[in-house]
Amino acid sequence: MIFTADLHIHSRFSRATSKQLTFPNLYRWGQLKGLNLIGTGDFTHPAWFAEIEEYLEPFADTGLFKLKREYAEKIDREIPSACRQDVYFMLTVEISNIYKKNGRTRKLHHVVCAPDMETVKRIQFELGKIGNLASDGRPILGLDSRDMLEILLNISPEAYLIPAHIWTPWFSLFGSKSGFDHIEECFEDLTPHIFAAETGLSSDPEMNWRCSQLDGITMISNSDAHSPSKLAREANIFNTQMDYRAIFEALKTGDKNAFLGTIEFYPEEGKYHLDGHRKCNVCLEPEETINNKGLCPVCKKPVTVGVMHRVNELADRKLGFQPPRSFPSESLVGLETALSQILGYGPTSKKVQGQYHKMMHNYGCELEILRSVEIEKIRKDMPLIAEGIRRVRTGELHIESGYDGEFGKICLFRPGEAKNFTLQPSFLVAWGEEPQAEKLARQEFKDVKNDNKNEQETTPSLGGLTAQQKEAVEHSGKPLIIVAGPGTGKTKTLTSRVCHLINNGVDPQKVLAVTFTNKAANDLERRLHDTLGEEVGCEVFVATFHRFGLSILRRHSDKIGLKRVKVCTRAEVLPYLRLHFPELSSKEIIARLNVISQCKSKLEDVNFASEDQDFYHEYCRILQTIQAVDVDDLIYLSVKILQENPEIQTQYQQQFTTILIDEYQDINKSQYALFRLLLGPHSDVCVIGDPDQAIYGFRGADVGYFLQFNEDFPDAKTIFLNDNFRCPQPIIHCAQQIIAANKSHVKRKMSARKQQLHSGIAYYECPSDKSEAEFVVHTVEKMIGGTSHFSIDSSRVEGDIPELQLDFSHFAVLFRSRQQLKKLEEAFERSGIPYRVVGQESVLSDAKIRLVTAWLSLIKNSQQLSLWYQVLSALPGIGKNSLVTLYQNSSGQDLMEALEQNIKSLKNETLSIIKDFYEFTTKIKARSVHKKIQKLWDHKEYGGYFRPEEEATCSYLLQMASTYTNNDDFINDISLTNHEDMYPGGKVRLMTLHAAKGLEFPVVFVCGCEESLIPYTLKDTDIEEERRLLYVGMTRAENFLYLTGSKSRLLNGQTKEMQSSRFLNTVKDDIYKKLEFKERKNKKSDQMTLFDF
Length: 1093
Description:
- The structure is a single chain.
- The chain is of the alpha/beta class.
- It has 5 domains: 2-274, Metal-dependent hydrolases (TIM Barrel), CATH 3.20.20.140; 334-421, no CATH class; 467-565 and 627-721, P-loop containing nucleotide triphosphate hydrolases (Rossmann fold), CATH 3.40.50; 751-840 and 983-1075, Rossmann fold, CATH 3.40.50; 843-976, PCRA, domain 4 (Orthogonal Bundle), CATH 1.10.486.
- The protein contains 42 helices and 36 strands.
- Strands 1, 2, 3, 4, 5, 6, 7, 8, 11, 12 and 15 form an 11-stranded mixed β-sheet that branches.
- Helix 30 (729-739) runs antiparallel to helix 42 (1023-1034), helix 33 (847-860) packs across helix 34 and helix 38 runs antiparallel to helix 40.
- The longest helix is centred in the middle third of the chain and has 16 residues, at 586-601.
- It is globular.
- The termini are far apart.
């Protein structure tokens, strides 16, 4: 049977798609368009997959699906009889792969097809380990395309991958921005499994025939529809059984009797057909781009190289060549578009839609009208429309080609031509004029934010900003310092400002946005991508200070005497130092490392006492030997490079003319120096932060740099953000009373903008640290249970709280000292409540992760005997004495040579274990980072000794590794990743007050509100910074805040009587509810209110 199929579409769970994308609507529009088979799209999204299961049922044993009868019958009654036909569905999804390969970032989209629900579930399970499938209908995975294809083939030989719109500049196999030159470069050994590819809207089969590397591939076409009415703008024609296996057999074999060809967009109408620069309204032919050296003739910035240009680059044949495996194609213009041209109204206007549906009733479905209905039959009733359709069929059109994201414009009639027909020419679009439809119809449906394409650039609206935020976003001309209190929309303001600057002409490649945590950087990057689109958003350099420093060192490694840059964390270097200084305890080694770190953060020379100079020199020698730098060097050495090389400094000043720094109150001397070195004569500077949240003085941060900004920039503008969107007013009021006692506090009134019906603040003083921990656990249990257990005794909120929709990840338990952690963990262990201790230390503090990174280093460079010592120590059957012998009695760094030198002193069993592991390591060398780690962890003998116990940690590392092909890049980035960057769902977070900075939770406990802990007086501390630390902890709470204290606590091995924190004495009694410990005299009810505990 002959049928038409559109296999690449999206659901409403993808970004920039219509809310009308439901299965009943797809079924309806499929009939109106003339489609017999439609891809489901987005089967990896949990919510859409639930709808697939609800609305669809298997169609016999074909591997396809149909709309369930109860839904189909209702739709069929609404469809014109001339359009009614069977519509089936195939399980499909488009996946975005973004990863690094061969030194470049690659961004590709692929269509994945599956034959049954079970296969889909297995795909969901495997890909869910790598990325968040619920975040977007088209999930973004940091996974090599080749590796994803291997995953699919391992799941099912009938799970197929089809590269999508293979020429689109930004996200495709051959795209000019991030694609490959050869298909084998992408899929490597699995290239034979790629038997079909999608042309995309901006190319047609004839253009693809010019590339001989595509000769063995069947070129197909699909709509990539983001709304139902865009279905079938491109489609495929088959002559097979309506069967999944028959369809793909036709594509695999290229049988011309089974696959009959494609229905195409006119490629010139595609929005990336030619080169150009949209902002300057410049459209260029490929030859013009070459003559202009790839630059826009107006602004001299690089143009976006389009599909035609890219085809020319990779083509090895002239236009007109037709390979043996080629199929017929015909280009059409959508009927709604044609009617809009003819009638002069938008495609969604009543006139156009009325005419469209009238034609459905009279002549049949859209594809029949455009392709086969007799023109004379239409001409009797609609002569002008008939002539327009005739011209669509014959290609008698004028098309202004699309470029740089702008769709091409089609004109059906020249000026004056309509005089020969019955409609007046005033209703027609003149040749060369912008069609009125383009002006009238920006949306396909009134409730759709983006008309018909996910790549459309969106302009951020300033309507959602407060007056203060808007002022900060729009400020220009002078340096800007934004004083942003907690929960005041700091990230939103920063994002909006960057977008505003770019939309007003600032080159995104000249924007540098510096944050303090990976989470903040990722969040800002995501928001920029969402607002500006990935192609523009990814051009903004967003990084932490350390990652930015790493980029400088990588680029100028020769200036520090290294061929490549590897970041070595403290956890990695400790084993070396223990070997060289066995007389020093770990505590003594760490104390010396702290001195080195402090000196570097202050840009000072390292000055040890004479007897300790050997330690510093040996430390430097170890780093030099393993070709590494430590974390502090990332900024310390970057400053040195810029200071000692004025020409490099000038390059960076010219590269980044717009600089934004987040959390400016927490910078230290070296970061301040780096910032100042980046400033050029015309730099646009914006810093944002809050001096009341400066809590990192112990790490060398100096709030003085924030306070002296107006001295550094005398003409600077200061803007305060005082509207809090996070905390309820009682929490803000309480926190403000506490922080007001600081001399450095700048008085300002914070106001709650979000009114929570269920919120409150309470102080609980318990007899002991054990009962404090039990109170925390019990409260979590009761709130998770959703019982009416909590009454706020105040004039603001009265009565019991109804059922709360909370899960364990909504709770955070904050503490000042890790000495408090033991009792808390014991209580959570007893309760069975899932929890996780989150810290700021590098993930390499996990010994097993450290082993994995050491092993990865050895794969590239096995000439590091000290690393072999570290890795082999994890294997069973190898004693420490054997390794010490191997290490100390070897003249070189090669493991095999060391074994030969010590063969008599090592047991045969030990030799065998080491040689087997060495062979395993050597064999896996060519794999991607993700695959190497997976192979190690899955190994039946080695896996258990290298795999972290927590599955969340494993999943996070594999997800991160999937974007890398280079071991060093992965190791460097993992070295700068903290435990706080890994957010396991469904667990209560236990963390220090410092680690909570930048986070927020519905329910927050601040434990240990006592003298000695808050403020921490067990050693010399800055009392004002301690007060700021409590302020930060309190303002993490979105709904409920519990301040807890204990009358006695175990500290430093002794039970001590404790006094309530002096900070709470500044709070008026009516601000929070004081809870008292009460012994229950009976057990009449298991139902307790919080205040009864």
